[in-house]
Design a protein that fits this description.
The protein is mainly alpha-helical. It folds into 2 domains: about 1-30 and about 85-385, no CATH class; about 395-510, no CATH class. The protein contains 24 helices and 4 strands. The longest helix has 30 residues, at about 1-30. The radius of gyration is 26 Å and the shape is globular. The chain starts with a helix and ends with a strand.
Length: about 525
């Protein structure tokens, strides 16, 4: 009888804990302004392969969708979800990832500062921590405390492979809780979904091995932990390393130059992203290093900082496209929010320790003030949520895409202005193949260079006029199968065989005859 009652209590405790963290995650999502609408931003690239493979629209006929997929695991998730669960599950996945991220960071802070030892202390920490994620405060706060350098972040409001970094934070928590093997499994999960986390994962595993050997002096155990990490990540590493085996060294070098200097200099060129904001983030991490200097977190932060800082300094001295394209400083998306959580926990805990009697005496006033601030940021976040999901369908780009959805069919290929950011979602919003755009590109040299040639051809068409444009149109129609052309208004396509079938103040859509 006692055992049955104990089981019921355990089940209730587990259910209460689960509901509690779901509630906190929900608060976090609202503070962030909710999730963005599907098929926007970087999703237009990252989800393309999975959706095309799943039979979404006619994307299987798209040139880009038939290049080599750099994100096999993520594409499989997208394909499986679209085919069997429905697109709403992408938001559910993102909710779970945000929950893992938030739980991991809060429990890391609790591991060192016992922020759950008093309800009022936990409430103060939770409130302060959630408040820092609101866009209501001056712009630099949220960017400074929770995003990495070089305009890199975890995409907490959009389902992308970036968000699987949540498993890196969970890995750190598991290691701190003396679960090194589970820590490795969690870390490898993130690296397999997003190969850009391979270097960050290697830095974390290295820190785990150093700490474990220093504490236990068990070389066999270190080999087992490191061997498990290598075994689980080896397939994706080999896939990545052999991806350009058919390309000449000159082709790889040309690709790296275009990526670094033209396509994403804001991510790859140190001179582009190193600024006061990046300097403050570095100080933030160094502050976390100081307060964790006698803990197991210190080597994790230190090795991560060295992995990011040494190549950065080296590239300042001697630029190298080969190194820059690796974006080694991506580990900052782990270091910065980890440091913020630890520093927040340290400050709140120190304040509570110094003024515990005063805080307990005025706890209801403190709860009222912090609750009021939370209500304000929640209202602001809810407004952002509504705005994100209530775009005017009459906006020129949306009206164009809606027309294509209603009237498009198989065998069509659309030529769109390649650098028009408003048309980046064209593929995923319409399900129709396009010739090319600047947003989405392959990551393997031979295909990348073909992509760049396509971009140049498309750009030359839109910059041409008169007979030259009509000659290019004929070439596109005959050799590339282009059936429709999107022109930015008020530009017209005055060529034989081109018939305008849609137009508004932003765009004109032409059907191209045989």
């Amino acid at each position: 009888m006692e055992k049955s009652r104990s089981n019921r209590l355990d089940h209730r405790r587990i259910l209460f804990t689960l509901l509690f963290w779901i509630g906190i995650t929900l608060l976090m999502v609202v503070v962030l302004g909710g999730f963005q609408e599907l098929f926007w931003g970087n999703q237009t690239t990252k989800m393309l392969y999975g959706l095309a493979d799943a039979g979404y629209g006619y994307l299987d006929q798209d040139w880009m969708a038939n290049t080599k997929d750099p994100l096999l695991a993520f594409s499989w998730i997208v394909k499986f979800t679209y085919q069997y669960l429905g697109v709403r599950f992408f938001h559910i996945y993102q909710f779970v990832l945000v929950g893992i991220y938030l739980y991991s960071l809060m429990m890391i802070a609790d591991h060192f500062y016992q922020i759950r030892r008093a309800p009022i202390l936990f409430f103060i920490f939770l409130s302060v921590y959630l408040l820092t994620y609101s866009d209501l405060w001056p712009y630099p706060m949220k960017i400074l405390l929770h995003d990495g350098v070089a305009i890199q972040d975890l995409a907490l409001t959009q389902f992308l492979p970036n968000g699987f970094a949540a498993f890196l934070f969970l890995s750190i928590l598991l290691f701190l809780k003396e679960r090194p093997y589970w820590a490795v499994i969690s870390l490898v999960a993130a690296c397999n979904v997003h190969t850009n986390y391979l270097i960050a994962g290697a830095a974390l595993v290295s820190a785990y091995l150093v700490i474990d050997f220093w504490e236990k002096r068990d070389f066999k155990r270190v080999l087992m932990i490191g061997g498990l990490a290598l075994l689980l990540v080896l397939p994706v590493v080999l896939y990545y390393l052999t991806s350009n085996q058919d390309a000449a060294a000159t082709q790889v070098a040309e690709m790296n130059s275009i990526v670094v200097n033209l396509r994403i200099p804001h991510h790859t060129q140190v001179g582009e992203w190193w600024n006061g904001n990046a300097f403050l983030k570095t100080l933030l991490v160094m502050g976390a290093l100081i307060i964790t200097r006698r803990t197991r977190l210190f080597p994790i932060l230190m090795i991560g900082l060295l992995v990011a800082a040494v190549p950065t300094v080296a590239l300042f001295i001697r630029p190298s496209n080969k190194i820059a394209v690796l974006q080694i400083w991506r580990i900052s998306v782990v270091l910065v929010p980890l440091s913020s959580a630890v520093l927040t926990g340290a400050m709140v805990s120190a304040l509570f320790r110094a003024e515990e009697d005063l805080i307990r005496r005025w706890r209801w006033v403190i709860v009222l003030i912090l609750s009021g601030l939370l209500v304000v940021v929640l209202i602001f976040g809810a407004q952002e949520l509504v705005e994100r999901n209530s775009l005017d369908p009459q906006l020129p780009s949306l009206a164009l895409m809606a027309y294509v959805v209603e009237n498009g069919g198989p065998g069509e290929v659309y030529l769109v202005p390649p650098k028009d950011r408003l048309l980046d979602p064209f593929r995923l919003k319409t399900g129709q193949p396009i010739y090319i755009n600047w947003k989405s590109h392959p990551w393997y040299a031979v295909e990348f260079l073909e992509w760049y040639q396509r971009v140049e051809r498309a750009e030359s068409f839109y910059s041409a006029s008169g007979e030259q444009r009509c000659a290019l149109l004929s070439d596109f129609a005959e050799n590339d199968g282009i059936t429709h052309i999107v022109m930015p208004s008020p530009d017209e396509l005055l060529c034989e065989g081109a018939e305008m079938i849609f137009g508004n103040e932003g765009y004109r859509l032409y059907q191209v005859g045989p």
